[in-house]
Design goal:
Its main location: membrane. This protein is mostly helical. It has 21 helices and 2 strands. It has one domain (11-525). A two-stranded antiparallel sheet has the order 1-2.
Length: 528
């Protein structure tokens, strides 16, 4: 059997992979001069933009979901089995990742301008991470999901340790490596249990098997009847392990302790990558496995996700209140934001009845029409706000070694553009006017979980929103407070720094002006 490959469907990750190879070749053969650093950065940026253009072209083409790496119809049976699907869900996540990657590449050009970090290796590893992040939301089988998730994670270890002879960076890389290995082992154990019971790796087939719409392949009817009592317990263990594995990836409680140390030790662009791109990939995988593959087991995982969401937003906010370091505050804030993103998933699969026959769409019929889309919308809005904050933090870090909150006193007077951009992003994260993007994002989530019947979770979210106001307001107030100590010599930021701030700030303003566009796009994309 010769499998046909639709290269247009896989064009975005393929373009990123080809540019990654080109960056290595250019790094090896170009003269070792300072002028070659911007060249590699521009090539990387061009590769990201080309991949984004392919995503836009796929979205414009429209029509039914495009797929490749599919099992022939005569072998697949009534359910179409494909490993790579470019539907609305895939395109929204890929577009968000690539736009965020533009900001991260611009920040990287600023970080690498100071020297001390191998430029070619940095951009190669960054592009490899992006290949995994773009591939993951298109993955529709367990093997591709695991491989794509590891492709997101593994290069970040090296990126974190790229600052040679920096003890904090090395410590952060080791912590991230250990956490990632443990999470992968836990997730693989859960995946193996699910595969062992269902006899398939495809999410669409898992959905119908675990919902009772079809028997597990390879099991005789008598055997299936004999194990009917023990089957739910084994499946529940597999579901819990898979949820735990993804909880490590998104820094959800109780698997959150690594976040602050890793964010602080890593270079600022890597911290931004972890807080947005890596987190988005983790959420894409979690949504696909739970809602697309295990919707029939929602009675098992929905309460777990609800409890994890409540704990994550509470612990993240309480720990953020105690921070004096800007990066550590953003790290714990990122943990709290993960709780808000998780909350709608607790009601995402209410009343789901997967169909035995169907197309390649991501989610089965009956999934709550707004839950998955709400999580996606919040994640998109959060990405813009957080990247804007990290871009300004990168600017301040060039003159403030410790990068504490006190270093931001009077920033709105010393650098009005940067100070106002950071103030707007922090106000957005807090959910206060004029940062309407964050306010609407929280309203979307609150409305969805109330309509889903999780009033207790909505109450916890409301309390945490008030708690979060404190540390965002304290940081914002410092921006407009005269400094108590003499200010260090002014550092002239590179144009790429201002461009990164401008892109993120423009996105946050756009989402504040037209939040309904994001909600409509993500809600519709989650089902087409």
């Amino acid at each position: 059997m010769i499998q046909q490959i639709d290269y247009f469907v896989i064009a975005p990750p393929l373009a990123l992979a080809l540019v990654a190879g080109l960056v290595l070749l250019l790094d090896a053969f170009l003269p070792a001069r300072p002028r070659t650093k911007p060249v590699l950065g521009l090539v990387t940026l061009a590769g990201v933009l080309i991949a984004l253009a392919f995503v836009v072209a796929q979205a414009i083409k429209g029509g039914p979901p495009q797929s490749t790496f599919c099992v022939p119809a005569d072998l697949a049976g009534p359910t179409r089995l494909c490993s790579f699907v470019a539907d609305g869900f895939t395109l929204v996540f890929a577009g968000m990742v690539l736009v965020a990657a533009v900001v991260v590449v611009l920040m990287s050009m600023t970080e690498l301008a100071g020297g001390g970090i191998p430029v070619g290796e940095w951009y190669f590893l960054l592009l490899c991470t992006l290949v995994g992040a773009v591939t993951l939301p298109a993955s529709r089988d367990l093997i591709m999901l695991v491989v794509a998730l590891e492709l997101v994670s593994l290069p970040v270890f090296a990126l974190t340790a790229m600052k040679r002879y920096d003890g904090r960076a090395s410590e952060a890389a080791v912590k991230l490596f250990v956490v990632s290995v443990v999470s992968t082992a836990i997730m693989l154990f859960g995946v193996s249990l699910l595969y062992g019971i269902a006899g398939t790796i495809y999410l669409s087939r898992l959905a119908v098997v675990f919902s009772g719409q079809a028997p597990a392949p390879g099991l005789a009817e008598t055997t299936a009847l004999a194990t009917a009592q023990s089957l739910p317990a084994v499946v529940s263990v597999g579901v819990v392990l898979v949820v735990a594995g993804f909880a490590f990836k998104i820094a959800a409680v109780p698997f959150h302790s690594w976040a602050a140390d890793v964010y602080q030790g890593a270079p600022v662009p890597v911290a931004a990558l972890l807080s947005v791109i890596s987190k988005a990939a983790g959420f894409a995988g979690l949504i696909l496995v739970l809602v697309a593959g295990l919707a029939g087991q929602a009675a098992t995982w929905a309460p777990i996700v609800g409890v994890i969401a409540a704990l994550t937003m509470t612990v993240g906010n309480l720990l953020a209140m105690r921070q004096r370091s800007a990066v550590r505050l953003l790290a714990w804030s990122s943990v709290a934001q993960s709780g808000y993103i998780l909350a709608p998933l607790a009601v995402a699969a209410q009343g789901v009845t997967p169909r035995l026959a169907g197309g390649t769409g991501a989610f089965p019929a009956g999934t709550r029409s707004g839950a998955v889309g709400t999580s996606m919308a919040y994640l998109v809005i959060y990405a813009a706000m957080n990247l804007g904050a990290f871009a300004v933090v990168l600017l301040v870090s060039r003159t403030a070694t410790r990068n504490e909150l006190d270093d931001y006193r009077g920033l709105a007077f010393r650098r009005p553009a940067a100070g106002l951009a950071l103030a707007f992003c922090l106000v957005c994260l807090a959910g206060l006017p004029p940062g309407l993007a964050g306010l609407f994002a929280k309203v979307f989530v609150f409305r969805e979980i109330v309509e889903g019947g999780s009033g207790w979770l909505a109450l916890i979210m409301a309390v945490n929103t008030v708690i979060g106001l404190y540390y965002y307001a304290v940081w914002t107030a410092r921006l407009f407070t005269p400094p108590t100590a003499p200010v260090l010599a002014r550092h002239r930021p590179t144009p790429t720094t201002w461009l990164a701030i401008g892109v993120a700030f423009a996105a946050a303003v756009l989402f504040s002006i037209a939040p309904q566009l994001i909600l409509d796009m993500t809600t519709l994309s989650a089902f087409g």
